[in-house]
Amino acid sequence: MKLIGLSGGIGSGKSTVARMFRELGATVIDADAIVHELQAKGTPLLEKMVAEFGGKILGDDGSLQRKTLGALVFRDPQALQRLNALVHPAVIQEMGKRIQAAASAGAEIVILDVPLLFEGQKRGSGSAALLPYAATVLAYVPRAIQIERTMKRDRCSADEAEQRLAAQLDIEEKKALANFAIDNSGSLAATQSQVSQVFEKLKKV
Fold first, then answer.
1. I need a surface site. Which of 49, 103, 154, 192 has the fewest CB within 10 A?
2. What total of structural domains would you count in the chain?
3. Residue 124, pLDDT score
4. Residue 23: domain span
5. Segment 62-79 mean pLDDT
6. What stretch of H or E contains 182?
C-alpha cells in the first residue's frame, strides 16, 4: 500500500481533486470529514471544545457554529493552537484506524486528504503531516481565486478570507514542498487531465 498526502490552500478545490483520485481507484481518507464527524453534536470532542472556548461556539440546537469558531481562532494564533491541541490527537487516532482498515482491505493507493499537510511538515508538528508518505500532492489556484472562492463558500468578508489564508503557508512555499502540483484554476477537464497524469506517476513511486 502506498500512502499519498494531498493538500491545498483554502479555496483551492482540493475536494474536487480528491474526488477525481477516488474515481480513478484510489482510497481517499478525508481529514475534514473526520473532523466534522468528531465535532458533531454531543460528541466528547465538542464537549472539550466548549469547555475551552465557551458556549458561544454553539448554536441554539447545541451544534458547533463553525463560522463563530473560525472568527475566534483565525485572528488569534494562540487560540488556534489551543484548538489544534484538542482536535489533532482525536483526528490522528481516527485516521490511523481508517488507514489500517484500507490496508486490510487490500488498497493499493491511499490518499490522505489533509488541509495543513505542508504546514505540519515544515514546522515538524502534526502527526498526519509526518506520516511516511510515498509522495505528496498539492492542489492550488492563484491567491485572488482563493479569496474569491473562500468568500463565496464561507459567506465571509475579504478581510476574513485574508485572515484564513494568513494562517497557512504561502502557496509558493507549498509548491516547493510538494512532489506533484495540480493547477486547479482552469476547467474541470484541465484539472482531470492533470490528476490522471499524476495518478499514473503515483503508481510508479
1. 103
2. 1
3. 65
4. 2-202
5. 90
6. strand 180-183
